[in-house]
Amino acid sequence: MEEVAANPVVQENIIQWAARFMNEGGVFMWIIAIVWCMGIAIAVERLKAYFKFDVDGASMMGNIKKNVIGNQVQDAIQSCSESPALLSFVMKNGLKRANQSKEQIQDALEASILEAVPKIEKRLSYLALAANLSTLLGLLGTIQGLIQSFAAVAQAEASQKAQLLAEGIAVAMNTTALGLVSAISLMVVHSVLMARGEKMIQEIEENSVKLLDLLATKKGSSSMDKAA
């Protein structure tokens, strides 16, 4: 009975499987992995920046409106200065010109928006580039694997054909798989970041118009009170 017992099957852990997967795929696997890691690094940096730049626009605008109506513009400016959000930056620059003409307030707001938007869109194009590169590198690795397989069938000795054919197929399939996984994940993250960035830009533009209207209305009301 002891002789009949089979040897236990050695099972790979996830690290061993990943190492074998990468090695069987050839050099393009490591290039795709580097591109993937760079894309992830960009995504993490953008997520951290968005958490810093974003703010509850409705709440901030409500606080600014209360201060402006109460003739406490400096308090509104101070409140905006304490926040690192881009909306706060734009609102602060508009509030600093509260006593000037509507056109001057609008110029300050537009200039601030032009300065804020690139900070939101920064490096997003590189994330899209990393996704496209992953797809193309996976395709290039697939072609390399197919060339290797065809060469094995055409030139190798009969005893080596099976092994070389299997190696070529592994290169083709592994690079395709990793390239697609990298590309899909980066494209999803890119879409999420784009949507959040567009939301912040729309919020900045919307509240800028509201602030311009508020300051112009407040200034008009003050002029009428003085005339009366």
From TrEMBL:
Residues 88-205 form the MotA/TolQ/ExbB proton channel domain. Coiled coil: none annotated. One of its GO terms (cellular component) is plasma membrane. Keywords: Cell membrane, Membrane, Protein transport, Transmembrane, Transmembrane helix, Transport. Pfam families: MotA_ExbB. GO terms for biological process: protein import. InterPro entries: ExbB/TolQ_transport (IPR050790), MotA_ExbB_proton_chnl (IPR002898). This is MotA/TolQ/ExbB proton channel family protein.
